[in-house]
Amino acid sequence: MNHPKFLQLDKSQTNLDKPAMPQEHNAMKRLTTLEARFDAVLPTLATRADIQSVKSEIHKASGETHKWMLATVIGLFLGFGGLFLAMSNTLKAAPQSSAQAPVVIQLPATPQQNPNRN
Question: How many structural domains does the chain have?
Fold first, then answer.
């Protein structure tokens, strides 16, 4: 059977050095080679269960990442809030000491009487 598809596939792989093989034998040889490749590759492909397990692992990792991000943001807000309060307390004017200076009251001087005056 000289099928046009087989003839076209065989043209690219025929060498002039080798004697020409019958078309059917060459096609069967190529088909056997492809089947061997498929038999080697198919067991390594992922199954539906494999894909589902990977999806669940990715979903779990994503949730954990969101939790860590939220905790980090909350920690940063608290840290910067504390830093702001510490700096604002440091920059306030220092309160006066509890030992205040004594209050001095000066009374007006009493008028002195002149002895020359009568």
Answer: 2
Same domain, 60 and 75: yes
d(CA 1, CA 17): 24
State the Cα angle at 25 between 19 and 30, rounded to 5°.
100
pLDDT of 1: 46
Q: How far apart are CA 87 and CA 54, in angstroms?
A: 49
What percent of the chain has pLDDT above 90?
42
How far apart CA 46 and CA 55 sit, in angstroms, is: 13
57, part of any domain: yes
Global model pTM greater than 0.90: no
User: Rounded to an integer, what distance in angstroms lies between the CA atom of residue 53 and that of residue 46?
Assistant: 11
Question: Which uninterrupted H or E stretch holds 73?
Answer: helix 48-91
In sequence order, the 6+-apart residues with CB closer than 8 A to the CB of 20 are 14
Other C-beta atoms closer than 10 Å to the C-beta of 23 total: 15
